[in-house]
Write a structure and sequence with these properties.
Elements lengths: L8 E7 L3 E8 L4 E8 H4 L10 E2 L6 E2 L2 H17 L7 E8 L4 E5 L2 H6 L7 H4 L8 H7 L1 H5 L1 E6 H10 L7 H4 L5 E2 L4 E2 L1 H7 L3 H5 L8 E4 L2 H7 L6 E3 L2 E2 H8 L7 E5 L3 E7 L9 E4 L7 E7 L3 H11 L4 H10 L8 E5 L10 E5 L5 E2 L4 H22 L10 E4 L6 H11 L3 E3 L5 H16 L5 H4 L7 E4 L5 H24 L1
Parallel strand pairs: 1-6, 6-12, 6-13, 14-21, 21-22
Antiparallel strand pairs: 1-2, 2-3, 4-5, 7-8, 9-10, 11-12, 14-15, 15-17, 16-17, 18-19, 19-20, 22-23
Helix pairs in contact: 12-17, 13-15, 14-15, 14-16, 15-16, 15-19
Catalytic activity: D-xylulose + ATP = D-xylulose 5-phosphate + ADP + H(+)
InterPro entries: ATPase_NBD (IPR043129), Carb_kinase_FGGY (IPR000577), D-XK_euk (IPR042024), FGGY_C (IPR018485), FGGY_N (IPR018484)
Function: Phosphorylates D-xylulose to produce D-xylulose 5-phosphate, a molecule that may play an important role in the regulation of glucose metabolism and lipogenesis.
């Protein structure tokens, strides 16, 4: 069924490293429009590779900010040509790649306020922008002196729509190492260690659900937005993804890709030296955490090639034919330098905790999958995660199409596993957040707002003995991981 012609729409944007994407949903949460601009292909004049410039030191990576502005011009023109009626958009929000910063030169806020709707944004905003605060202060002092405001990529994009500087939101701000996530304010100690007068340059952070104000008159006159269209705080790509996956308290999302990423909804975080803890983007008093594991699908594929004749069917059969707990054998497969924990090397242990040089092919297959998921659970629990009644594991990414791998995931976490399609979760999350921002003030919860979205699909439930088997195995895993770490550092 098509939306009624004047029914309200909600716009979500995502400014990632390689592209700018937009999704438009209606009040029933149906996607009614999608568009995108690929930087390398559609803006070749900026000469980026993968959306970035890699500097001669091979370490510094920057993106031309003007390219993002020009991409927004292109994107909105595309959407207009496709017949999208911008006057129906009630609210918009967005997300930006995390850990990037944009420096606005003195006088920029005046420029933003008085943009001429007859010109392209990128012609109006020929601005110097710099990255990474402390570094800029040391290497380009005079440019730092001339800085009026510092934005994150997310709040930079929001500023364009607002026609003025947009506040940094709590959730993306948490990724800067400058925000105290408990008081939700800048930490004085961290600010002083970074640069003088930094609080004035950053502005006060705001809740991620805040309505920052109406869209600027530039967009009203140039694209036909309504004057009452609200700009809801933009946030980081990972927090937006959490919104797009519609995580709930107690849930954990596991993205099984080249590297594996674990998203957690936390009530009481225990920040550690590993992982990242952020303020939750959809529930002001709660938290979220992110853990990255470098050894993901490539490791599973190598074991498949060596132990299962390069066939996923045989790999799956090996998982079916071996028991939960794998006869007590435990494996660590860190083929490239792992992040969590920082170790490299492959280590296998038998049921007596003795290191062995090999396992039989079928046992090896189960060892790699169980070992990876025990590691995901262990490090999640260290950050304050605990399995509660109603906990769901949401699986996404390449390996989430393999039923047997997901069965092991369900058993190790002792929770049901659901699969979700994540191709546009950041963009969709931004559209959901736009809709939620309008009603958040009146106390409506995010979970209520997104009730109508399609439900994830249940694919595995834990074996009755799973809890007993893996609680025991996890205790051994903890001690063996410590041994592996010590061994690699000795």
């Amino acid at each position: 069924m098509a939306s009624a012609p004047r029914a309200p729409l909600y716009l979500g944007l995502d400014l990632s490293t390689q592209q700018l994407k937009a999704v438009v949903i209606d009040g029933e949460l149906r996607v009614v429009h999608q568009s995108g601009v690929q930087f390398d292909a559609e803006l070749p004049e900026f000469r980026t590779q993968g959306g970035v410039h890699i500097h001669t030191d091979r370490l510094t990576v920057t993106s031309p900010v003007l390219m993002w502005v020009k991409a927004l011009d292109l994107l909105l023109d595309k959407m207009k040509r496709a017949g999208l009626d911008f006057s129906r958009v009630r609210a918009l929000s967005g997300s930006g790649q995390q850990h990037g910063s944009v420096f606005w030169r003195r006088g920029a806020s005046e420029t933003l306020k008085h943009l001429d709707p007859d010109q392209d944004l990128h012609q109006l905003l020929q601005r110097f922008t710099g990255n990474q605060i402390a570094k800029l202060r040391q290497t380009r002092a005079e440019e730092f002196q001339d800085t009026e405001r510092i934005s994150l990529v997310s709040s930079f994009a929001a500023s364009l729509f607002l026609g003025g500087y947009a506040a940094i939101d709590y959730s993306d701000g948490s990724g800067m190492n400058l925000l105290d996530i408990r008081t939700r304010n800048w930490s004085e100690i961290c600010l002083q260690a970074t640069a003088p007068h930094l609080d004035q340059l950053l502005g006060a952070p705001l809740p991620s659900t805040s309505v920052l104000g109406p869209v600027s008159s530039y967009f009203v006159h140039r694209y036909g937005f309504s004057e009452s269209c609200s700009v809801v705080a933009f946030t980081g790509d990972n927090p937006a993804s959490l919104a797009g996956m519609r995580l709930q308290p107690g849930d954990v999302a596991v993205s099984l890709g080249t590297s594996d990423t674990v998203f957690l909804w936390l009530q009481q975080p225990r920040p550690a030296l590993e992982g990242h803890v952020f303020c939750n983007p959809v529930e002001q008093q709660e938290y979220m955490a992110l853990l990255c594991f470098k050894n993901g699908s490539l490791t599973r594929e190598r074991v498949r090639n060596e132990c299962a004749g390069a066939s996923w069917e045989l790999f799956s059969a090996a998982l079916r034919d071996t028991p939960l707990g794998n006869h007590g054998n435990i494996g660590f497969y860190f083929e490239t330098m792992e992040i969590t924990p920082p170790v490299i090397g492959v280590h296998r242990f038998d049921s007596a905790d003795c290191e062995v040089s090999s396992l039989s092919p079928q046992v090896e297959v189960r060892a790699v999958v169980e070992g990876q998921f025990l590691s995901r659970r262990l490090h999640a629990e260290r950050l304050g995660y605990s399995i509660i009644p109603g906990t769901r594991v949401l699986a996404t990414g390449g390996a989430s199409s393999n039923k047997e791998i997901l069965q092991v995931l369900s058993d190790v976490f002792n929770a049901p596993v659901y699969t979700i399609d994540l191709s546009d979760s950041t963009c969709l999350g931004s559209a959901y957040r736009a809709l939620h921002g309008l009603v958040a003030e009146s106390g409506a919860s995010f979970v209520d707002v997104v009730k109508k979205a399609p439900e994830p699909r249940l694919v595995a439930t834990p074996h009755p003995k799973a809890k007993e088997v893996y609680d025991e195995l996890l205790k051994r895993y903890v001690q063996l991981e410590e041994r592996v770490v010590q061994k690699s550092h000795s």
